[in-house]
Design brief:
single chain; mainly alpha; 9 helices; about 75% helix; transmembrane; transmembrane helix
């Protein structure tokens, strides 16, 4: 064996002798433990695969969660199509061109949206491969509240304001639903998606109330800030709790015999 080949193979031999071979992950990825003698390697790997499959079917890709996401996506498509047909063909109000163009754009956007829904139905259930974290979820909540608040505050006509705010809430919810069906984030489940609808509705009410006077505007903005602080605290607390749960699962994977003894 020439010196170059010996130098390249030496680290591999040392790694095998030390028993260093780990593919470790907190959620959704298989953790593989290899001992120097190689015993129990297959059984532990199979156990990890079963645990990961169990996690996949009980999280954002569970049957109930996917049914919720499909329901939201279907409701968005039906709402936009029915609304577009009514406004463009049967509405006798003297609405502006921008109002009609909004419905034309939304109805056209439902075509690729339905295609994505069909792809999600035909493909296998995806495995969550990333996490939004507290900052990511808070960003979605904040963006939803700010957009809906500005819409409801800036549009003077009450009927048009309610209509556009509703379309904006449905569009945001539909976007989240299709992402969770196609490439799901592990920490954005169906209940948190429903929470986006609640925040959007509350923001529309705050923006509508803020039109009355400067005092109403100041009060609604103060309430807005308090709500966002509470949501931020909730996101951080939920992230901390989920991190603790993942750490417990890692320990059980690394020391299955010890956890079994403790349970007995």
């Amino acid at each position: 064996m020439d010196p170059q080949t010996q130098n390249t193979s030496l680290p591999r031999v040392q790694n095998v002798e030390k028993g260093v071979s780990d593919l470790e992950l907190g959620e959704g990825v298989m953790e593989k433990l290899v001992s120097p003698s190689g015993e129990d390697m297959n059984s532990r790997a199979q156990l990890n695969v079963k645990d990961n499959r169990k996690n996949v079917t009980t999280g954002v890709t569970s049957f109930d969660s996917r049914i919720t996401f499909y329901s939201v996506a279907t409701l968005v498509v039906i709402t936009i199509l029915v609304g577009s047909i009514f406004v463009l063909w049967f509405d006798t109000r003297n609405i502006g061109t921008l109002h009609k163009l909004l419905y034309v754009f939304l109805s056209a956007a439902t075509i690729p949206y339905i295609g994505l829904l069909f792809i999600c139905l035909c493909n296998d259930v995806p495995v969550p491969s990333y996490r939004l974290g507290a900052e990511g979820r808070f960003g979605i909540y904040l963006a939803t509240m700010v957009v809906i608040y500005c819409i409801s505050y800036c549009i003077e006509d009450f009927d048009v304001m309610m209509e556009v705010s509703f379309l904006a809430i449905m569009s945001i919810s539909g976007a989240v639903a299709i992402v969770q069906l196609h490439s799901p984030a592990e920490d954005l489940n169906s209940s948190r998606t429903t929470f986006i609808l609640v925040l959007g509705t509350m923001s529309a009410i705050l923006g509508c109330v803020a039109k009355d006077s400067w005092m109403s505007l100041s009060g609604s903005l103060c309430f807005f800030m308090v709500v966002m602080c509470l949501i931020k605290i909730n996101c951080l607390a939920a992230d901390h709790f989920e991190e603790q749960q993942r750490e417990r699962r890692r320990r059980r994977h690394r020391h299955p015999d010890c956890s079994k003894d403790v349970g007995e």
